[in-house]
């Protein structure tokens, strides 16, 4: 934890560096190769059509493998498991039972559209047709949704109806109420309403997309202008904020004193809080002098603490403001850094796309499992079977009424047994690669901004393309270190995911101790993740500057910050305030402008605004997009501030202002610290 020893050859980010954490680099490469293998295996075995397309009772996709129809049933519910599912060209539009249809050739011709290919017409007795499940026992009016047929439920004057009827015959001579179908179709109606809502939202996007883009461009320009203005207005913004806080507290103290004085002599106002006890109506406490006295004391203490902090931390606040201004200059000299988050975003999108597609293929890797179903007692009931050889097997001889029907998707091979392990590996690799991409972006920006700080004559001594040279150094020498840091973070994040899963499973449990323990673990790992992110961020800055391995960089960064903990706290809070203010101004301004435009309240462009189903759709899109754009700009700016701050602390510990060891900090920072460079021109 001791300060860095002076190195006379050190002039900023070291170019003559070697590879670090090679073992982690090899481990990452092996893991990526394994991830690719898992993806290939998943894509070979998986079939996303199982998620999208419905199947019939044989497990065949509708529209394929000899089932050319588009919709799937069941066209009518079957009272015996498994339910009869048939691929149909269109959903039924009327009530009908097979028993009644079998007596009319015209009705039977219509009914056969909802029967299996084995159905041979009226050649077989109706009861045998139903027993062999060649046709459903009944049809009900249905509507297609997501390639499936659902009962066409509607409400007329508060009465639930299907096809203008409140009852139906179930095909076995029983009259049933349509409300029995309601529970099964309730989710379908929600999906139908959601689809209609989605269509309206899509229509709004088609007529307003170019205005949304204009709003996002305005947000981008506003973010850029705000970063440039921070060079001139950072100090004013911070001091205005401090003065406002002091004035607000002062007004609060005055108001509390006036209320305290007003209650003097009023009946019942001198009752103590302990005598009054707990009251559900909190307004009762506002009629007590003791309440306002407590408020007065608390606000006075806060005011005193803030004034004392200002007195003792004034110089550190000025240093924080100077660093923020310097960061604005650095971003101005490395303008390409503002576009770099787009590269990080693109790589993150690739990680998300690969993870999502692999997860879908893995989840659909199961094979169709067929089992023996029968009406009477049978020793083979529930056993797996093969439809191709079932009719020639001993099962049909011993159990004449047995059938080999599709049961579910599964599998008993080694691959299917370890599917959950492969899904876990998929999630773990997603976190690792996503964190690696973010780490690569952070170390690249840190290297570019460190080049600015350690240039004695700014910007003349900077490399021609600082961002690209920093990116090249990171990939060439420090892939292992970035893999190490992102691996540690990924392990913690996966543990958090597991804890969230366990918490979800234990919600219905009554074990309070287990819930308490789980809550404690979730809190601890949340704190651990935040700490690791903070440590990694600063370790990557040290890697970008010195080219040391991850552990050495993390240790040096941690102890350097601990030696300057007050400066760290002040800079962190000042930058947090400025970023919050910037995001609030940008998102708020663009959001208000979008609201007045899309609600046609700006008279100059009233006729230009497009007609919309929901005006909140483009407004919310502009607000969310503006926030993401502002966050992207400020993430670069925040990395710049953190990098310059670490460089500033290193500069103070390494150098003393002599001709041999001059300070690299800007002239404004030297003036604040009353430091000078002897025998050297000002940087």
Mean pLDDT: 81
Biggest β-sheet, characterized? 2 strands, antiparallel
Uncertain segments are 66-70, 73-81
What portion of residues is helical?
A: 55-70%
Could you tell me the number of beta strands? 12
What is the secondary structure topology, with strand pairs?
Blueprint lengths: L21 H24 L3 H4 L18 E2 L14 E2 L7 E2 H4 L3 H7 L14 H6 L6 E2 L2 E4 L2 E4 L1 E4 L2 E4 L4 E3 L5 E3 L1 H84 L10 H4 L12 H45 L6 H24 L3 E7 L13 H4 L3 H5 L4 E8 L3 H4 L1 H35 L12 H12 L1 H27 L6 H35 L3 H13 L2 H34 L17 H39 L12 H7 L10
Antiparallel strand pairs: 1-2, 3-4, 5-6, 7-8, 9-10, 11-12
Helix pairs in contact: 1-9, 1-13, 1-15, 6-8, 6-18, 6-19, 8-18, 8-19, 8-20, 9-13, 13-14, 13-15, 13-16, 13-19, 15-16, 16-17, 18-19
Describe the structure in your own words.
This protein is mainly alpha-helical and 683 residues long. Among the domains are: 407 residues, no CATH class; 42 residues, no CATH class. The chain is built from 20 helices and twelve strands. Strands 1-2 form a two-stranded antiparallel sheet. The longest helix has 84 residues. The two termini are 30 Å apart. About 2% of the residues have low confidence. Keywords: Antiport, Cell membrane, Glycoprotein, Membrane, Mitochondrion, Mitochondrion outer membrane, Phosphoprotein, Transmembrane, Transmembrane helix, Transport. It comes from Loxia curvirostra. It catalyses: ethanolamine(out) + n H(+)(in) = ethanolamine(in) + n H(+)(out); choline(out) + n H(+)(in) = choline(in) + n H(+)(out). This is Choline transporter-like protein. InterPro entries: Choline_transptr-like (IPR007603).
């Amino acid at each position: 934890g001791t300060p860095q020893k002076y190195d006379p050859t050190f002039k900023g980010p070291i170019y003559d560096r070697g590879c670090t954490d090679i073992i982690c680099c090899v481990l990452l490469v092996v893991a990526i190769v394994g991830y690719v293998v898992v993806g290939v295996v998943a894509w070979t075995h998986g079939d996303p059509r199982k998620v999208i397309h419905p199947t019939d009772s044989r497990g065949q996709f509708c529209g394929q493998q000899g089932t050319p129809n588009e919709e799937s049933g069941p066209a009518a519910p079957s009272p015996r498991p498994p339910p009869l599912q048939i691929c149909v060209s269109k959903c039924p539009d009327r009530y009908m039972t097979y028993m009644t249809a079998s007596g009319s050739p015209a009705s039977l011709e219509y009914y056969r559209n909802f029967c299996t290919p084995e159905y041979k017409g009226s050649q077989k007795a109706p009861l045998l047709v139903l027993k062999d499940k060649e046709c459903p026992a009944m049809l009900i009016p249905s509507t297609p949704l997501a390639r499936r047929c659902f009962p066409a439920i509607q409400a007329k004057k508060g009465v639930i109806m299907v096809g203008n009827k409140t009852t139906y015959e179930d095909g076995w001579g029983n009259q049933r109420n349509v409300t029995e179908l309601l529970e099964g179709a309730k989710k379908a109606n929600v999906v139908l309403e959601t689809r209609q809502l989605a269509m309206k939202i899509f229509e709004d996007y088609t007529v307003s997309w170019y205005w949304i883009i204009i709003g996002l461009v305005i947000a981008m320009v506003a973010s850029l202008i705000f970063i440039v203005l921070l060079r001139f207005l950072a100090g004013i913004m911070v001091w205005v904020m401090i003065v406002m806080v002091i004035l607000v507290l002062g007004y609060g103290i005055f108001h509390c004193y006036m209320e305290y004085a007003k209650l003097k002599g009023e009946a019942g106002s001198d009752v103590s809080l302990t005598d009054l006890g707990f009251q559900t109506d909190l307004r009762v406490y506002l009629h007590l002098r003791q309440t306002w006295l407590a408020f007065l004391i608390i606000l006075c203490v806060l005011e005193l603490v803030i004034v004392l902090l200002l007195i003792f931390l004034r110089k550190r606040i000025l240093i924080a403001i100077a660093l923020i201004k310097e960061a604005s200059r650095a971003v101005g000299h490395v303008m390409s850094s503002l576009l770099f988050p787009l590269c990080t975003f693109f790589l993150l999108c690739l990680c998300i796309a690969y993870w999502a597609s692999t997860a879908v293929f893995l989840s659909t890797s199961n094979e169709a499992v067929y089992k023996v179903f029968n009406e009477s007692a049978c020793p083979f009931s529930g056993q797996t079977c093969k439809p191709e050889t079932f009719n020639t097997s001993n099962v049909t001889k011993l159990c004449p009424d047995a059938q080999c029907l599709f049961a579910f998707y599964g599998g008993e091979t080694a691959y299917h047994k370890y599917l959950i392990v492969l899904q876990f590996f998929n999630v773990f690799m997603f976190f690792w690669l996503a964190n690696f991409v973010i780490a690569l972006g952070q170390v690249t920006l840190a290297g570019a901004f460190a080049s600015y700080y350690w240039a004695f004559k700014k910007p003349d001594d900077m490399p021609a393309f600082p961002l690209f040279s920093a990116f090249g150094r990171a990939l060439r020498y420090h892939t292992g270190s970035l893999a190490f840091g992102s691996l540690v973070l990924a392990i913690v994040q996966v543990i958090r995911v597991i804890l969230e899963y366990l918490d979800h499973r234990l919600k219905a449990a009554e074990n309070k101790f287990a819930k308490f323990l789980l809550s404690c673990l979730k809190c601890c790992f949340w704190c651990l993740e935040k700490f690791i992110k903070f440590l990694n961020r600063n370790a990557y800055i040290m890697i970008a500057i010195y080219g040391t391995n991850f552990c050495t960089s993390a240790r040096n960064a941690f102890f350097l910050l601990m030696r300057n903990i007050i400066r760290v706290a002040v800079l962190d809070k000042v930058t947090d305030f400025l970023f919050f203010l910037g995001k609030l101004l940008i998102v708020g301004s663009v959001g208000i402008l979008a609201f007045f435009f899309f609600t046609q309240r700006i008279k100059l462009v009233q006729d230009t605004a497009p007609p919309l189903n929901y005006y909140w759709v483009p407004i919310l899109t502009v607000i969310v997009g503006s926030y993401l754009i502002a966050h992207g700009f400020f993430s670069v700016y925040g990395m710049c501030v953190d990098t310059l701050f670490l460089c500033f602390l290193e500069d103070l510990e390494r150098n003393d202002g002599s001709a041999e060891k001059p300070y690299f900090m800007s002239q404004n920072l030297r003036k604040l610290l009353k430091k000078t460079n002897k025998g050297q021109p000002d940087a």
